[in-house]
Amino acid sequence: MGSRFGEEGRQLSYGTYLKVSELLSLQQGLSEAHDELLFIVAHQVYELWFKVVLDELEAARGRIDSDDIFFARHHLRRVNVIERLLIEQIEVLETMSPQDFVAFRSQLAPASGFQSVQFREIEFLSGLKEPNYLTRIEGSPEEMGRLQRRLDEPSLADALHALIQRRGSPSLLDIFRDRERHGDLFDLCEAMLDHDEAFAHWRARHVLMVERQIGSKPGTGGSSGAQYLHSTLGKRFFPDLWDVRSQL
């Protein structure tokens, strides 16, 4: 009787495939505070999901470039589901009281979420390109190279506009008014807006969390904290997809 599937050789296990031992060794805190582990894990999980979001946005852009709107929407749908998960994760961080956070917050300076390279990559890849970030983020040469590449390469917004041009250059207003003729373009625009809206929800939810944790204190990276975060709430990846609603 032959061996069952998965038993041949037995050289791979769940732990070795996912490198669980290495993964669980990466939560090295700087204090004895109980909640620092939660803080580290939550932000490491954010970075892991950011990696997936970048992969899916790249895939969506590639599908748009090849006129494959069906699979472009598939990738954007996955991004939206992940983003909703990231918004919900904030609630886990809010189980820390302000006192719990203060117990180790001073150890974090000058590190700040502002310095997340992958977060900025998502912004650049989506269409929100702000070159001044390259002088304000202290990343490794490899990270800064990635940011520069994202700044130079076509964004998801660029891919959409190029697709519309290939379709005869209908205006966004035409696309939204004549959904029978431009149904797939309309659906793609709405999928991209889902991504934009979810990120806007994350920004707003994040501001509330920061205000709940530290009030009006400055951020650990030297920013004005919640005041700075409030100034980012109006940022949009695809402002023209929002503006067209005023013309309908």
Q: Biggest β-sheet: count, sense, barrel?
A: none
Mean pLDDT across residues: 91
Tell me the distance between the termini. Answer: 69 Å
Which class of secondary structure composition applies to the elements? mainly alpha
H and E order? HHHHHHHHHHHH
Question: Radius of gyration from the CA trace?
Answer: 21 Å
Number of strands: 0
Q: List the uncertain runs.
A: none
Residue share in helix? 55-70%
Search tags:
248 residues, mainly alpha, 0% strand, globular
What's the topology here?
Layout: H1 14-18, H2 20-24, H3 36-65, H4 69-93, H5 98-105, H6 117-126, H7 141-152, H8 156-166, H9 172-177, H10 183-214, H11 226-231, H12 239-243
In words, what does this structure look like?
The protein has 248 residues and is mostly helical. It is 62% helix and 0% strand. It contains 12 helices and no strands. Helix 3 runs antiparallel to helix 4, helix 3 packs parallel to helix 6 and helix 4 runs parallel beside helix 10. The relative contact order is 0.12. The mean pLDDT is 91.
What's the quick description here?
The protein is mainly α and 248 residues long. 62% of the residues lie in helices and 0% in strands.
